[in-house]
Amino acid sequence: MPNIIEISDFDAPELDAYARLTEAQLRNRLEPEKGIFIAESTKVIATALDAGYEPVSLLMEPKHIEGQAAEIISRCGSIPVYTAEQAILAKLTGYELTRGVLCAMRRPKPRSVEEVCEGACRIAVLEGIVDATNVGAIFRSAAALNMDAVLLTPTCGDPLYRRAARVSMGTVFQIPWARIGNEPSQWPQPGLARLRELGFKTAAMALSDHSASIDDPRLAAEEKLAIVLGTEGDGLSASTIADCDYTVKIPMAHGVDSLNVAAASAVAFWELRAR
After folding, report:
1. In which band, very low, low, confident or very high, does the pLDDT at 96 lie, cut at 50, 70 and 90?
2. How far apart are CA 59 and CA 183, in angstroms?
3. pLDDT tens for residues 16-42?
4. Taking the alpha carbons of 150, 156, 157, 160 in that order, is the dihedral positive or negative?
C-alpha cells in the first residue's frame, strides 16, 4: 500500500533532500556510504527503477498519485509519498516541478574504470564539462549512438544531478560510467596512461593545425578508441591534447569555428562509431 503523506511542516527533516540540501550534501550527508540523488519525471524515475536504483521517497502533486505517477508508486512499495499542491511544492523546493514528480534515490556504489570499460571498443571521456544540460545531452547521445561507456574526469559535473539526469532522458542510468581519477592531479596523467593500458587509442576533439579530419579512415580502423571531449568554452587542455594519440576536428563551414560540446559529441560518436 502506498504511504501517502500530505506536507504540513516545511521543516520536517525527511524533506531535507528536496528542500534544504545542496547536491554536494545529497552525495555525502544523508547516506555517507552511498549518498542520495533526486530523479525528476516519471520517465526518468522509471528508467532508474528498471536499472535497479533504490527509491527512498517520492514528492508530487496530489493529482499525480492516481495519474501519471500511479505506476511509479506501485513499483516503489511502501516508501513515503509526500504530496502538496504545486505552489507549495515550488516554495518547498525553490523551483517549479516541470515534470510533476521527484524521487529521492540512493546512489549506487561507484564503478571502476576497468569495470565499465571491460569489453568496450568505443568510449567517451568528458574533461571538466560542468554544465548539467551538456552532461545530460552527451549521455543521451552516447547511449543513442552506441558508445559503450562514459568516463568523467575529476572536475566534471555529476551525471546524477537532477537536471543532467532529466536532460539525458534517464540514459545516465543505462550507459556504464565512472570517474577516471578522484583528484584533479590524476588527469590527464596518469588517466590517459591508464586508458592505454586498457588498449585504447585516444582521440582529442580539438581544433589545431595538426588535427585530423573526423572522417580520417585511421580513426574508424582503431579497434578501441576513446573520444575525449573538452570543457565548455576553453575546450581540452593543451596537456591533454599533447598526450592523446590523435587530435581530431569536425570540419566547419561559413566561418563557424566550433560546435557546442554536446552537439560535437553527437557528430563524433556517429562518425567514430565501431564499424
Report:
1. low
2. 35
3. 788 766 666 666 655 545 688 989 999
4. positive
Arithmetic mean of pLDDT over the chain: 90
Q: What are phi and psi of 202, to 5 degrees?
A: -115, 135
Hunting for cell 540523488 — which residue is that? 37
SS3 31: coil
Query: Do residues 225 and 268 lie in contact, with contact meaning Cβ atoms separated by under 8 Å?
Result: no
Which SS3 state, helix, strand or coil, does residue 77 take? coil
pLDDT the model gives residue 89: 77
As given in the structure block, the three cell numbers for residue 184 are 584533479
DSSP string for residues in 137-180: HHHHHHHHTT-SEEEE-TTSPPTTSHHHHHHTTTGGGTS-EEES
Distance set, CA 270 to CA 59, 112, 144, 147, 250 (Å): 38, 26, 9, 9, 12
- As a whole number of angstroms, the distance between CA 38 and CA 45 comes to 9
Report pLDDT digits (tens) over 145-165: 999 999 999 999 999 998 999
* Cβ atoms 127, 159 nearer than 8 A: no
Strand partners, 235: 231
CA 261, 267, 271, 275 torsion: positive or negative? Answer: positive
Average pLDDT over residues 56-70: 92
Residue 11: is it exposed, middle or buried by C-beta count within 10 angstroms (0-12/13-18/19+)? exposed
Neighbours of 260 (CB within 10 A): 13
Residue with cell 590527464: 188
How deeply is 268 buried, as exposed, middle or buried, from its count of CB atoms within 10 A (0-12, 13-18, 19+)?
Answer: buried
Output the CA torsion sign for 104, 106, 112, 118: negative
